Amino acid sequence: MPDPGSGCTRARNEACCESSNSTDGGPALHTRSGFSLFVGITLAGLYGLACAGGGESSEARSDYESASAAVVQIIARDSSGEEVWIGSGTFIDASGLILTNAHVVDERDDEYVDLAVAITASTDLPPELSFLAEIVAIDYELDLAVIAIVSNLDGEAVDDRFPIVPIGDSDGLEIGDDLRIIGYPAIGGETITLTEGATSGFLPETGIEGRAWIKTDAAVLAGSSGGLALHDGLLVGLPSIVGSGAESDEVIDCDLIFDTNGDELIDEGDTCLPTGGFLNGLRPINLALPLIEAAQSGTEYISPY
Predict the structure, then answer these.
(1) How far apart are CA 105 and CA 98, in angstroms?
(2) Of 217, 224, 219, 95, nearest to 160 (Cα)?
(3) Rounded CA separation 288/144 (Å)
(4) Residues lower than pLDDT 70 in the chain
(5) Other Cβ atoms closer than 10 A to 245
(6) How much is the pLDDT for 190?
(7) How far apart are CA 227 and CA 208, in angstroms?
(8) What residues form DSSP beta bridges with 22?
(9) Is the entire prediction scored with pTM above 0.85?
(10) What fold, for 1-305?
(11) DSSP one-letter code for 191
């Protein structure tokens, strides 16, 4: 979240504060089940666009506008075309390769028939369902995957060139570096959403060499999983529903606030909103490089984990 000292003031940028996007309301969305939601947020942590003072505001807006065109919503659908769950992803190759979390496209239990991809044409509007995609590389241990656009919704081949976000070096991140998280959270309505925070630290994981997790205080909501973590305009990580370094499925202070499954009830069937005390985990982009290279070269990816 933005530092209070760098926020909008009348002297700094009154217009910025007046134009901040609201995240209230919007249709309910389903998120991938089976993963505990470890996020430390408040409703005040949701921003359509985060405000900052002076030149930083222009830089933030430029990064957001460039990256938002490359961040997509991924919808797993059943045989009738109905949504089973949703997640986010990012174009990392103009040919149509999308980086996301493995659990967003998990096909092991045959719970969905196809993967549809929705594109944001305007940040004021919900994404438009546009393409079908298939898995080309996946690593369930790292919870990372690459999918590829294969056709439009009618099954016809496409030759579109897609906007991409350039890949950064997650090993170059330092504690305190700013991060911008972009995705399609279930509690943020249907439109693309940005939250801000800082790099809070790093965590190892047994069997993984180097940085296994990037810790951040930025809000990461269900539905944003698989989306984009941006630093200096570069893709440095993927937000995950799983809290960084979590060793159990325990969920703390998780409150039922919204009707997220659309049944007009607020009950145990809805996604809860965890509050307070948790840092969210990002998978560093460097761990995804072997999957990306395999997808780009058309070779089979075999997980070393």
Answers:
(1) 11
(2) 95
(3) 7
(4) 1-57, 59-60, 188-189, 241-262, 266-279
(5) 16
(6) 82
(7) 22
(8) none
(9) no
(10) Thrombin, subunit H (2.40.10)
(11) S
Residue 29, token pair as written in the block: 């969305």
pLDDT at 245: 40
Place of tokens 């944001």: 120
Nearest Cα residue to 195 out of 69, 88, 19, 41? 41
Helices and strands, number each (H, E), in the chain = 3, 14
pLDDT at 239: 92
Q: What confidence score (pLDDT) does residue 265 get? A: 74
Closest CA to 101 of 64, 138, 68: 138
For residue 178, list its beta bridge partners: 198
Alpha-carbon span 272 to 44, nearest angstrom: 16
The SS3 assignment for 106 reads: coil
The domain ranges of the chain are: 1-305
Beta strands 128-139 and 71-77, pairing class: unpaired
Q: Which residue's structure tokens are 């059943």?
A: 78
Phi-psi region of 111 (alpha: psi -120 to 50; beta: other; left: phi over 0): alpha
Token reading at 23: 């995240």
Structure confidence at residue 147 (pLDDT): 99
pLDDT digits (tens, 9 = 90+) for 53-83: 444 567 667 778 889 999 999 999 999 999 9
- The token duo for 172 is 């170059």
* Cα–Cα dist 211/292, whole Å: 18
